[in-house]
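TL;DR need structure tokens for one chain.
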Amino acid sequence: MFRVPPNVRFEVDNVEEDWTYHQPFDYIHCRMMGNAIRDWPRLNRQCFEHTKSGGWVEFIDLDLTWTSPDGSLTDSHSSKRFNNEFIKASREANIESCPGLYLEGWMKDAGFANVKAEKFIWPVGTWPKDKHLIMEGLEGFTYALFTRQLGMSKAEVEVICANIRKEMKDPKMHAMFHLHVAYGQKPEA
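>> reply
TL;DR here they are.
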């Protein structure tokens, strides 16, 4: 049985609505919210407003642009075409699917100090030595966007996902994207 310490309280809310918290937070952590947030600068401002002086905020998110260090992922691959369409459809829906690129700037613009940013490689497919880095959940983040925004049928999306899975099993294709971590501190009052 899991026990929650007495000084911990979980609150479920929509981060894109006006925040109504009555006490500021010591620490706010926001992870993997790409394609869920429509107004990232506003989210950063609300984090800043609801963090205690001296408190910290951390964002972890992606730049979903697939690339390869050796040119093995090309525009002729279904995976690359899918990736380009995914990012395009997201942006047409007014959603930034590559927020990792902008986290540091948004935090600074919101007023955070001591902002640090790091970038990590996130391999896609079977080529990395660390097999825990293989991408999962392709359909989960594809169906809604491709059927609603691009007007594709479920069958069309299934074909795209099957082609991508086939390409991802090729150990000669070294696809990857970047994971970004940015954190900063609200200045002392």
